[in-house]
């Protein structure tokens, strides 16, 4: 059976791994290549590298880092942050990235999703969506959750699927950094609405939260950062707990 | 040993090169006929859309060369699919090495299949020392249905062929270069195959 995936996310700034609480107040959590190797050895199913400063500072994602990671680890990884063109993606894929994640650039130029899917295939196009609830509506936000758009989460998710996205990485800004669990209601709705895999992100605090997001949130994968970086949850322990809850995982 | 990764402009070939290097070998990226023909092992990668990739193969004349190769050849993912008769994706005529037609998963399941799934009914030296039901990494929307040339099977919507073999030609739908240590062992097996 296809397994549920556990995905540590390494937020990168100036070549180092960082994780912010609600995307501000960053803390340093180590060397990305070293962390990538550790996670791969511990049984992570995939990795995500997000250059979190990229969108704001208009920096391009770190190609050197991608090469180092690709030469070191033997599991798939996604790179995101500041990707805004077909050329950006070409460089990252050529240097060993398996997938790219686009966020703001997809909102500003939705045709980019079509172009990437056509040139490289849907399988490598992850559309990341940050959203939070405003007056009971899930509204898509940009620039690390700082700028609201006019877009409704569910309308946008449907559109990115139709344009050729291969996967959606949904971060609930309401849950991110709280360690109170994932936004399972919205996740379950997303999962039923679209027919591409959904990665749950934002809110992981304990093992039960992962169980809940797979069972109640119907997520295909769950992403987290600080609980892994600060060893609050060990991936091996997490996977055994998931298996004990009859959730299919790779051990 | 001379290992060539066919470079026709399709997708992430750097990962395969890195994986070969981790096994202690060097691999050359090439689209040169002479170099490919002279190699001990040929890897035929592919990521992306079938008709687009096939067009690039035809433009470089490699569609004629590949079926004539005599050394062990390993097609990975779309590479494997292009070695089949045809693909439903972009209504593409393939290289016709494997006698099977590639079709799409239906919306009964999430498409693409993305992630780790098990391989079983392993039937080839490619899987020497590999246990049944090991997990491999797969990302695909189209698949080769079960057929006599299947050397591994996987379940997703249906039981399908996740690896194929005919004579010196091997194909894996999964990515051995991205499937952890077990995947690397399959790549190592491919390099160790008897000619």
Walk me through the structure.
The complex is a heterodimer of chains A (251) and B (195). With 251 residues, chain A is of the alpha/beta class. Chain A has one domain (5-244): Aldolase class I (TIM Barrel), CATH 3.20.20.70. Chain A is built from 11 helices and 12 strands. An 8-stranded parallel beta barrel of chain A has the order 1-4-5-6-7-10-11-12, surrounded by 6 helices. In chain A, helix 1 (32-42) packs parallel to helix 3 (63-72). The longest helix of chain A has 11 residues, at 32-42. Chain A is globular. In chain A, 57% of the residues are buried. Mean pLDDT of chain A is 90; it is low at 20-27. Chain B is α/β, with parallel strands linked by helices. Chain B has a single domain (3-192), classed as Class I glutamine amidotransferase (GATase) domain (Rossmann fold), CATH 3.40.50. Chain B is 24% helix and 34% strand. Chain B contains 6 helices and 13 strands. In chain B, strands 1, 2, 3, 4, 5, 6, 7, 10, 11, 12 and 13 form an 11-stranded mixed sheet that branches. The radius of gyration of chain B is 15 Å and the shape is globular. The model of chain B has no long low-confidence stretch (mean pLDDT 95). Classes of the chains: A alpha/beta (251), B alpha/beta (195). The A-B interface holds A 1-5, 40, 45-46, 67, 70-71, 74-76, 93-98, 118-124, 166-167, 195-197, 220-221, 250 and B 11-12, 14-15, 18-19, 21-22, 47-49, 52, 78, 107, 110-118, 135, 137, 139-141, 155-156, 175, 177-181, 183-184. Chain B: Heterodimer of HisH and HisF. Chain B: InterPro entries: Class_I_gatase-like, GATASE, Imidazole-glycPsynth_HisH. Chain B: It comes from Flavobacterium petrolei. Chain B: Its main location: cytoplasm. Chain B: This is Imidazole glycerol phosphate synthase subunit HisH. Chain A: InterPro entries: Aldolase_TIM, His_biosynth, HisF, IGPS_HisA/HisF, RibuloseP-bd_barrel.
